[in-house]
Structure formats: structure tokens, C-alpha cells
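Hi F.,

I've been meaning to write this up properly since the lab meeting, where we talked about keeping a consistent format for the predictions we share between groups. The idea is simple: the sequence comes first, exactly as it goes in, then the C-alpha cells exactly as they come out, then a line or two of notes. No screenshots and no reformatting. I'm using this chain as the first example so we have something concrete to point to.
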Amino acid sequence: MNEFGTKAYSKIVRWFSRFFVAFLFGGFIAVWIYLMRQWDYLDIPRVYLYFLFFILYVNIEFRTFRGPDEAAYADHVWVRYLLTYSWWFLMVGSLLEHALTLRAVPALTVVGIVLCVVGIALGYWARRTIQGELSARVDSWENMRIVTGGPYAVIRHPSYAANILLVVGMPLILSALICLVFSVVLVVLFIRRLIWEEKVLAERLPAYADYMQRTDHLIPRIW
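Output, unedited:
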């Protein structure tokens, strides 16, 4: 989901992506219709809580920071698409797994809520920090500068940290254990993406190398 840059790709890739996203959105609607039919059997408070975090998560992603376009991103377009598709499979799959299994593990639900609350708070904090020092979008590298306030004073990728907390926490709310497979895939892709972004940033912004020496990737004093 979260990414540093974007690029216009071939028409075939763009149309295929749009078709697949439309397919996933249709699947989301179909799952919702199924949920409505099974409504009397569902754990309604958990479903509503799941949708609350879903809406907050989408709001963060919709307003996330976007950096300059860069030709190098074409080499990693597969990461972008895998992130998008895996995220949708996780969101839809968690609801479907809950409807089919009606599994309820209170301890997992509590852990999921805690992870999601921390993730949402961190995501909004990171977004407000970026918008306070830059803006929602920077169109050229000449206008780019390193943000070191707020959570960026401690870790370099608080937005990714927030995403990771949310993609792990949301299926736990519904005790959707099978869908944690998609969570693992997303975590791996997020880490792959941030490592590559750091390489691009270090090449374009010389001061970023010094910033990397003073901060950690995602977890303070650990990594």
C-alpha cells in the first residue's frame, strides 16, 4: 500500500491492474452480501470494530505521502501490485474466514485491537508530521528534504511500521488465523519495499546516509 513514488506504466499493465482491483472490489461486495445473510450468526461487535479500523486504515493510505516519480520504480512495480492485491485478499479473506468459521479467541481479539490502535495512532502521527514539514505530495527531488520530527526522529519508516501493525492486528480481531498468511506476505513486501526506498533516497539525498546512522528502520534500538 504505502509507497514512496509512482510511475505511469504500460496500458496493458494499467488495464490489467484496474480489472483485477475491480474484481477484488466485487469480491468484497460479494463477501459483504454473504455476511448480511449470515448476520444473525456473526459476532457483530467484532465485525463493526473491524470495519472501523478498516475505514481508518484506508483514510491513512488515501492521504499518505507520495514522493517524486522515478524511472527506477518500474523495476519494482511487482512489489506495488503484490502489496495492493495481498492487502485486499487479507481484508476480504478475514471477513470471509470469520463468517465461515465463527471462530472466537478473546485473547487474540484483544491483541488485535491493541495492535490496531497503536498502528492507527502511529500512522496518523507520521502523516501529520510529514504534512507539517512537507506536504501530501512532492513532485521534484529539488523540493525533497529529510523529515526528522515526530516519529521520524526515532525510526525512518513509521508509516510502514503502522501498516505492519495493522495488517497483523486486523485479522486477529476476527480470529482469522488462516489469513495471517497474507499478513506475513505483506510484512515481507513492506520490508522489501522500505529497504529499496532507502537505497533510492540515499542516492538522491546525500544527507540521508547520516540520518540512517542516527535512526532505526522500524523498531527503536532493535532494527
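Notes:
Residues 1-8 have pLDDT under 50 and may be disordered.
Residues 92 and 165 are 18 Å apart (CA to CA).

If this format works for you, I'll send the rest the same way.

G.
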